[in-house]
C-alpha cells in the first residue's frame, strides 16, 4: 500500500491512474473515483505529518478536481467513476489540519 504523502506526490507528477476491477481495486468498475463531497473524500484522506517552520503538524490532503461534463457515471450519491483519466484535471490541493 502506498503511503498517503507518496500518493499525492505521484498524482502530481504522473496524473491519475484508473482503479482496475480485475485487480480488486474498483468496486464500481474501472476508472478514476472522485467525489463532489469533501466530507466523503476526507474519509479516504489519511493524516500525514508535515514539517513546518513552527514544528510538525498532522494534516489531511485532498485534490480539488474538475471533471469533463458527460465523461463520468454516478456509482452512488457520493462517487463518480471517470473511465478516462484525461477527463480529470486537478487544479487545487485542499489541506486541513487533522484532529
Strand order of the largest sheet: 1-5-4
Overall mean pLDDT stands at 87
Stretches where pLDDT is under 50 for at least 5 consecutive residues are none
Task: Tell me the Rg in angstroms.
Answer: 14 Å
Shape by Cα distribution: elongated
Provide the number of structural domains: 1
N- and C-termini, Cα separation: 23 Å
Number of helices: 2
- Coarse structural class: alpha+beta
Largest β-sheet summary: 3 strands, antiparallel
Strand content: 35-45%
Number of strands: 6
Order of helices and strands: HEHEEEEE
> What is the helix content?
10-25%
Q: Could you write a compact summary of the structure shown?
A:
The protein is an alpha+beta fold and 99 residues long. The chain is built from 2 helices and 6 strands.
